[in-house]
Amino acid sequence: MKRMLIFLLAVACLCIGASALAEEKERETVSLGTKGQLVVRIQQRLADLGYYAYKPTGSYQAVTRRAALAYEQAAGARQDGRLTPEEQDELFSGSAARAPYAANVALSFTAQNPYFQVTGELWGWDEVKKELAAGESYTLTNCATGENCQMVFQDGEHHAHMTPANPATDGQMLKKWLGESNSYYKIAVVVEMGEKRVAASLQFDNATAHVYFQGSASHVLGMADKEHDSLVQRAAGR
Question: Among 30, 69, 73, 126, which lies 20 to 30 A Cα-Cα from 62?
Answer without folding.
Answer: 126
